[in-house]
Design a protein that fits this description.
3-stranded antiparallel β-sheet, globular, 3 strands, 2 helices, alpha+beta
Length: 68
């Protein structure tokens, strides 16, 4: 299992964090997601078949790309 914490600068409200958590949780292989409004940080843990590339692609698709 891999875990990564990153900033999603487009987080502006509770709906944003809920959307990120819901969408990433639906991705097969993602085991946990925590998005924080105050810090705009997201922590995601995943295993196969999910990959960091797939997670990044989904974040871009839903409008919350990872910074950096």
């Amino acid at each position: 299992m891999e875990t990564k914490t990153f900033v999603a600068p487009d987080i502006h409200c509770g709906h944003c964090t809920a959307t990120i958590q819901r969408e990433l949780s639906d991705l097969e292989g993602v085991q946990s997601v925590k998005a924080e409004l105050d810090t705009k940080q997201v922590t995601v843990s995943w295993g196969a078949p999910a990959t960091w590339d797939r997670i990044q692609a989904l974040l871009e698709e839903i409008g919350y790309p990872a910074a950096g």
